[in-house]
Each structure stands twice: as structure tokens, then as C-alpha cells.
Write a structure and sequence with these properties.
Layout: H1 7-10, H2 15-24, H3 36-42, E1 54-55, E2 58-61, H4 68-81, E3 117-118, H5 126-132, E4 138-143, H6 146-156, H7 162-165, H8 172-177, H9 179-182, H10 196-200, H11 212-225, E5 228-231, H12 235-246, E6 260-261, H13 273-280, H14 282-302, H15 304-325, E7 334-335, E8 355-357, H16 366-373, H17 379-399, H18 407-415, E9 422-423
Parallel strand pairs: 2-3, 2-4, 4-5
Antiparallel strand pairs: 1-9, 6-8, 7-8
Helix pairs in contact: 6-13, 11-14, 12-15
Length: 449
């Protein structure tokens, strides 16, 4: 919420106040902040701002090459702002939940148990997640158009996926001409080479291309579990649906694009390739087409005009945020080697792919630096920092507990702690990681994925 001498003006419902704040002088509401009243008067809200508490128990299934890192960053910042617990992977799993193995509660770091949110990469396993998450958890994921997504996967994992490494000269055209010549379904990273979305969601990536019944049943299972399936190509519109689903404010969904490739790292798809990609990834294509249609149905239910107004508000707030964080200018993404702060350097998958990031200018205030730093922090750095802070909090809370007489009693107390599923806007919440319809939890020791 906007604060300070201009707080009341930011919350005003008059058109002049809106114009003044969003057009005449973006500096009056620093860091891109958008008031609840602003969204109420000019967006899709049909009830008084702040009437419903924010929902905070969330599973975000982070899919590959779908803008999911940007979405993860939104959730990480929301968790920190509201003093929520985020499930983090055990050390043996790295920064993912031992992907590509099916998710297990054993993959969750002990210091982050009884979480409110979980968002790092995993292979979906509903049964195992239900062991970890509260009963009122809302499930969300994101999909991307299969042709553009596969091009990104092919380029990004060209050094890691053997199905891609076998292809002469790294040619996407050659792979799609004879995919079975290069593809080995049992190889550990074969999920990047076929129906990756289906695999991430717990499905069978190698089911017969002619088995329409499987695709239909799989989509039905996904729809039962996930309250919102976001669409990468309409990221801002997806965030508006998310905001209304979770009763969040527009300020909660501000973001800076992360994990982007340079234009030179992208391959242009020649005529005919998109059709070949969709045929090779037929279950993903069916999945995307179905949820793209249902996505627009949800937007229509909310009202396309009011969604457009909220998207406009969001983008205006984004620009204010950018200018506040980057010294009054719009930022230019930089190659990792040019970023001075090591924590802000994104991971580089190979020497053929350039993933760009950001560095904050030195001439902005300390307050602005502290506010803006997390917006541009890459996934691996943010995961490490968040785990560290939660581990410290866990140790402090453990040291302050009264001594118990038995392990059984300690376990009983731990497992009966209240689950905070909502955050009221007046104050932060208290502190505390198969197929979509089923799954068997793995009991084996986690390994590095």
C-alpha cells in the first residue's frame, strides 16, 4: 500500500488522482505501488478493498521454460513480506526437489516443514504434496505454447539432454525430421525432449500419440487439481486472474522479467516446424489448447474490459517500479559477466546460450536498493538466501521452545501447530515444501538431480 504524505492521494477514487499518479508524476508512488482503492475503482473488484483476507497456502508447479521463474520470484517476495514459510529442497536435491524424480515429502528441508508455499521445480505428485501442505492449499501452474517452448528447451538444454546432444550441428530441423533416431525415453533427462509439460505434471510423456483418451483423461485430472492454469503468452492477464483467485492486491503481483535469453540465443522456427513440434509433443499440445481455451473463459467471466484496465494499472505500476529501481530509467538486461553483484548473475546453461540479468545502479538510495534487490534476484541465489533465513528462524524458534519430556510429545506439538492460510491486509501473518489425481510417495534417499 502507498504510504507517506501522498498515501491518501494514491488511494483516491477520482479520475484526476488516478491520472496524476499514473501519468503526470510516477515518482509520488515509489516502487510501483498500487493502492487497493485504485484497483477497486478502475479494475474488476466487485467488493470493498480488503474485505477478504489474502490466501497464502499455495502450490505453484514450476514448469520449464514458461516464465515460471518470474512467477516464482513473485511468490518468494510475497512469502517474505507476509512472514510465510516456503518449502525448500534438502541439500542433496540442489535447488529443485530432486527433479526429475517424483516429488516426495522426504525432499523437503526439515527447517521448512509445515510450509505455506512450495514453488521450486518438481515432478508433480499430489499424494506426496498433500502430506506436506494444508488442506486448503490452492494449486496453480503455467503452460506455454508448445512450439515456442520446445525451441527454448532445445536451445537451453542442448548440452545437458543426450537426445539433443546426438543431433548433428545442434540442428532442431534435423531432430524433428527423425526424432526417434535421437530420442531415448529411458535416459535421465529425456523429459526435456518430449512432452515436458506432461511430465512435469506427473503424466506419461511417452504415451501413444494416437491415444486421445489418455490425453483427455489427463487433462481432466489436471483440471480437477489446479484452480488456475496460467498461460505464459498472456502473463499479465494470468496475474490478474491469480490476484482475484487469491484476493491479493495489484502490488503483490509486480515483477521484473527473469531468466531471459538474448535474441541471438533464440532460433527462428522455419515454416512447418511448429506443426512438427506439436505432433512430436502431442499431449502437451492437447493440454495447452484445452487450458488456453478455458483461460479465456475465465477472463470473460471476470470481464475482458475490467481485466484490460487492471492490466493497464499493472503495467503502469511496473514502469514506476523500474524507474524507481534503475535511477529513473528503464533497465537494460546485461550479460552475466557484466553483473558486478555475484548473487545477481543468472545461471548459464551452456556457452551457446546467454541468460541475461540486472545490476542495480549505485546512485539509488539504500531504501530503493533493499526494496528492488529481490525483484531481480535469480532463482538459485534467492533459494539459497531464503533457506538460510528460514533455517535461522527455525533454530531460534526451536531454542525458545520449552523442554519436552519425550520425542512423541515433541512430535505431537509440532504436528498440531496451527496452519495460517490467510493474511489480513492490516498486518503480516504469523510465521510458522504422479498424475495430478494420484501418486505414490518415494521413500528412497534423494540424489542430486
Amino acid at each position: 500500500m502507498a504510504s507517506g504524505p501522498f498515501g491518501s492521494m494514491c488511494a483516491a477514487g477520482a479520475w484526476f488522482a488516478w491520472w496524476f499518479l499514473n501519468v503526470a508524476n510516477w515518482r509520488l508512488c515509489p516502487y510501483g505501488r498500487v493502492s487497493n482503492m485504485e484497483a477497486f475503482h478502475f479494475g474488476c473488484s466487485h467488493q470493498s478493498p480488503g474485505a477478504k483476507p489474502k490466501h497464502t497456502n499455495i502450490v505453484f508447479l514450476k514448469t520449464h521454460k514458461t516464465a515460471s521463474t518470474t512467477m516464482q520470484n513473485i511468490l518468494f517476495r510475497f512469502a517474505e513480506l507476509n512472514n510465510l514459510t516456503v518449502a525448500m529442497p534438502v541439500q542433496a536435491c540442489g535447488h529443485q526437489f530432486c527433479y526429475p524424480r517424483s516429488f516426495s515429502s522426504h525432499f523437503v528441508h526439515l527447517h521448512t516443514l509445515r510450509p505455506n508455499l512450495i514453488t521450486n521445480h518438481m515432478r508433480f505428485n499430489k499424494t506426496a504434496l498433500q502430506r506436506v501442505m494444508p488442506n486448503d492449499t490452492i494449486y496453480i501452474t503455467i503452460l506455454r505454447e508448445p512450439a515456442s517452448m520446445f525451441e527454448s528447451l532445445f536451445t537451453y538444454y542442448s548440452r545437458h539432454c543426450m537426445s539433443f546432444r546426438r543431433v548433428p550441428n545442434g540442428s532442431l530441423e534435423a531432430f524433428l525430421a527423425e526424432p526417434l533416431r535421437y530420442y531415448r525415453p529411458q535416459e535421465i533427462e529425456s523429459m526435456y525432449a518430449r512432452n515436458t509439460l506432461t511430465f512435469d505434471l506427473g503424466g506419461d510423456k511417452d504415451n501413444s500419440i494416437k491415444d486421445l483418451a489418455y490425453a483427455q483423461n489427463f487433462v481432466a485430472d489436471v483440471e480437477k487439481v489446479f484452480s488456475l492454469v496460467m498461460i505464459s503468452e498472456y502473463f499479465d492477464e494470468s496475474l490478474i486472474l491469480l490476484r482475484h483467485l487469491l484476493s491479493w492486491d495489484l502490488e503483490d503481483i509486480l515483477y521484473v522479467k527473469l531468466n531471459m535469453r538474448t535474441e541471438s540465443s533464440k532460433k527462428r522456427l522455419s515454416p512447418g516446424l511448429p506443426e512438427k513440434i506439436r505432433a512430436w509433443n502431442s499431449i502437451d499440445a492437447y493440454l495447452y489448447d484445452y487450458f488456453n481455451t478455458s483461460f479465456w473463459d475465465k477472463l470473460s467471466d471476470l470481464g475482458l474490459d475490467c481485466v484490460a484496465k487492471e492490466v493497464q494499472l499493472l503495467r503502469q505500476a511496473q514502469e514506476r517500479l523500474m524507474r524507481s529501481c534503475f535511477g529513473g530509467k528503464m533497465p537494460l538486461p546485461r550479460p552475466a559477466a557484466e553483473i558486478k553483484n555475484k548473487d545477481l548473475r543468472p545461471w548459464q546453461p551452456s556457452d551457446k546460450v546467454d541468460i541475461v540479468g540486472y545490476d542495480l545502479p549505485v546512485n539509488i538510495s539504500r531504501e530503493a536498493q533493499e526494496h528492488c534487490l529481490k525483484y531481480i534476484m535469480p532463482e538459485i541465489s534467492y533459494t539459497r538466501i531464503l533457506l538460510h533465513s528460514q533455517s535461522l528462524q527455525h533454530r531460534r524458534s526451536y531454542q525458545n521452545r520449552p523442554v519436552q519430556k519425550s520425542h512423541t510429545l515433541q512430535q505431537h506439538i509440532r504436528t498440531t501447530l496451527p496452519r495460517h492460510s490467510q493474511v489480513h491486509r492490516s498486518q503480516p501473518g504469523p510465521s510458522v515444501g504422479q498424475s495430478p489425481g494420484s501418486g505414490t510417495e518415494s521413500k528412497s534417499t534423494p540424489k542430486q538431480s
